[in-house]
């Protein structure tokens, strides 16, 4: 049994960054031997194990063969005859196809270090085109601080074009597309993810509403809401966006409607929908948005006035009159300000 550190963690170390986690490949072993050594099996499609102490993932070296459509359309082969180079060859980019042994020696059969120096995303092998997810992984990598200024190798662009032409992007699961999007939003240069989607014509079918880019905010949810704003809240309706994202997105939509509204009674209805008491903390985050800068003093004043309203008095009001009385409370507090 030989163990090698592989993938993104080796890449990050070579770039001078501390990796968040590490992945490992085990050569010349078997599932039985891994279990005998205390590793916990977790893989469904291929043998992946958790280390008994560090909980890091250890996978048996494997090769793969395309057998269907989408990123799941592969058959995997593993046994003690699969070499480290075999395993590295199946990976997406050369910069992710580098390994390190237990003595710190770098194994780089596909010249990934050279591509790191040249700041290039280059495919490891022609099999790149078999997995449509790889083009979205590239877009996600562009959001990383250490990789945002890397460019796609001209030879790899050909494979991008083939993947787009194959229409296999539609065969990706909506959950996996959202996962890649969310990871991009969690990184510093999220705008580069969406720029790559546009530049390399990856919009169909998951990003058909994407026309413009704006990723203001220090939270993934805020960036997502800003992307919705700049695209008229028509972006990625088919993706399984979590409620925490939808809540901020919907709040920003109402705020934009509030700014555009000129009718006082309609403004009061919008503020009631906005539920300032429940969403006050979210609304205060909106101060980060450049798009709201000229309106912020007005908005902040309105939100703070709403927070002074004592809605507890509604407890003693007849149920049939609560809605009307609530509107009166809003009006009394805000009539001079809206």
Question: What can you see in these coordinates?
Answer:
The protein has 14 helices and eleven strands. The chain is α+β, with helices and mostly antiparallel strands and about 350 residues long. The protein has three domains: about 1-120, Beta Polymerase, domain 2; about 130-205, Orthogonal Bundle (Hydrophobic Seed Protein); about 210-338, no CATH class. The protein has a seven-stranded mixed β-sheet. It has a two-stranded antiparallel sheet with strand order 6-7. The model has no long low-confidence stretch (mean pLDDT about 95).
**Tally of DSSP β-strands:** 11
By secondary-structure content and strand pairing, the structural class works out as alpha+beta
Structural shape: elongated
Topology pattern, helix = H, strand = E: EHEHEEEEEHEEHEHEHHHHHHHHH
Strand content: 5-15%
Low-confidence stretches: none
Work out the helicity level: 40-55%
Q: How many discrete domains?
A: 3
Number of helices: 14
Q: Main beta sheet, described?
A: 7 strands, mixed
Main sheet strand line-up? 3-4-5-2-1-8-9
Averaged pLDDT: 95
Distance between the termini: 72 Å
Oligomeric nature of the chains: single chain
Radius of gyration: 26 Å
Key descriptive features of the protein:
338 residues; alpha+beta; Beta Polymerase, domain 2; Hydrophobic Seed Protein; 3 domains; seven-stranded mixed sheet; two-stranded antiparallel sheet; 14 helices; 11 strands; 10% strand; elongated
């Amino acid at each position: 049994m030989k163990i090698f550190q592989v993938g993104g963690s080796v890449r990050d170390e070579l770039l001078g960054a501390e990796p968040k986690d590490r992945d490992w490949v085990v050569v010349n072993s078997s599932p039985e031997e891994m279990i005998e050594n205390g590793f916990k099996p977790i893989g469904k499609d291929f043998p992946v194990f958790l280390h008994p102490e560090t909980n890091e993932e250890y996978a048996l070296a494997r090769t793969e063969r395309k057998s269907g459509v989408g990123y799941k359309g592969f058959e995997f082969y593993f046994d003690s005859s699969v070499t480290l180079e075999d395993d590295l060859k199946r990976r997406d980019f050369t910069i992710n196809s580098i390994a390190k042994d237990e003595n710190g020696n770098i194994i780089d059969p596909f010249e990934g270090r050279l591509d790191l120096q040249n700041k290039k995303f280059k495919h490891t092998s022609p099999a790149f085109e078999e997995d449509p997810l790889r083009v979205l992984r590239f877009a996600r990598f562009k959001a990383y601080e250490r990789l945002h200024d890397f460019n796609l190798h001209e030879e790899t662009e050909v494979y991008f074009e083939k993947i787009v032409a194959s229409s296999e992007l539609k065969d990706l699961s909506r959950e996996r597309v959202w996962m890649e999007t969310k990871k991009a939003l969690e990184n510093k240069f999220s705008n580069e993810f969406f720029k790559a989607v546009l530049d390399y014509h990856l919009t169909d079918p998951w990003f058909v509403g994407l026309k413009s880019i704006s990723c203001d905010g220090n939270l993934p949810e805020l960036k997502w809401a800003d992307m919705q704003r700049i695209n008229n809240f028509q972006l990625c309706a088919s993706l399984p966006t979590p409620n925490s994202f939808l809540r901020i997105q919907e709040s920003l939509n109402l705020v934009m409607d509030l700014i555009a509204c000129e009718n006082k009674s309609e403004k009061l209805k919008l503020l009631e929908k906005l539920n300032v008491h429940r969403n006050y903390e979210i609304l205060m985050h909106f101060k980060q948005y450049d798009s709201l800068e000229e309106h912020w003093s007005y908005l902040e004043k309105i939100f703070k006035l709403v927070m002074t309203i004592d809605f507890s008095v509604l407890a003693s009001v007849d149920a049939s009159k609560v809605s009307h009385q609530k509107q009166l409370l809003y009006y009394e507090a805000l009539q001079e300000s809206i």
